[in-house]
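Researcher: Let's walk through a ligand-bound prediction step by step. First, I give you the protein sequence. Second, the SMILES string for zinc ion. Third, you return the three-dimensional complex as structure tokens. Ready?
Model: Ready.
Researcher: Here are steps one and two:
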Amino acid sequence: MTADGRRGPRFPLGLPHCADGATIVLRLMRPSGIRPSAIGSLCVALAFLLAPAAPAQDEPPPAPLPVFEFHSGFWLNLHHTLYRQARLQRANPGAGAGIANLTAGEQRVWAAAVGFYGRNYAGKDLTVSLEMILIKNQLGDFETCEDLAGLKKKTCDAGLPARLTEALDSAAPVYRAHLWPEHDRSNRRWIAAVAPLVRRNGLDLAHRLAEIYQTNWPKERIRVDVSSFASATGAYTTLDPMRVTVSGADPRNQGPEALEVLFHEASHGIADGVQDAIFRECRQRDKPIPRDLWHALLFYTTGEVIRPLASPTGTSAGYVPYAVREGLYKRGWENYLRVLTQYWQPYLDGRVEFGDAVAHMVSAL
Ligand SMILES: [Zn+2]
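Model: Step three, the predicted complex:
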């Protein structure tokens, strides 16, 4: 569901570029070998609010939501679609193009792009490969551009590797004609469905989770790229800058569960404190660090915090948290559920201190 890496370091692919419209953030280049935390104090993000972005397609611009900023971007969706198709073909070489009714010419162009992804990217993990993270972020930033080589607008030169630019630009007309209208509609449907939940509960949830993890919620709204495909888990988060990618088509992300997925993902960006506390307790006790305990804790916590909100009666009844529904605790996390229920829940209920709860969990494993 997320990147395993605690920090997703960020290197520019080239000089900072500007997409037209939207909010552009220029990032200073980070010399290799410098820790993200060190660069954090050096790196001042300069945000320039340019002319307002063109209204998306033919829908009126919605009133701004709190906490999250949703995008349905052409290039990011094309990138994930090609990646997915390339992985499908890798697993099953007989798999078709993934698009019906292509002309021979379109077939050739699309197959070439999928082949390029197969050779270069299908073996890489979207959530942990620095290269994949940088490409994804760059494509998000250039979502309003018609092409990525800057042929029509110089500012649209995304600075991506030339062969990748060529693959994306050549596949774009095929994608635009055959898949994008439905992908975009599906993304926007998902955004429209989750928006009232975010509007109603977003700020409270953000405050509550920040309080639980004893930190501050990010001041800026968190960018969420909605994509037809978003890794095998249906959603993932990359850090520095924190961005969430979520599949609007994934059956796991529908209904009130969409809200849980969003806040689980966002929690990845604010849960360093709990990871550090777990590591510290383990070191003090000379115990191995329980693999993914912090991640199980994130799932548990988001589930418990969302539960009363997601239930129509306003109680904890009737809503099954993601980790329970998807059987995560049955896949090696049984002990984690036990210690979370026994020692973490009292902290969520305000009955014990953060440090004591973590110490108890670690000593009980
Ligand atoms: Zn996660």
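Researcher: And what stands out?
Model: Confidence is low (pLDDT under 50) at residues 3-55. Strands lie at 23-26, 46-49, 68-71, 222-227, 235-238, 243-247.
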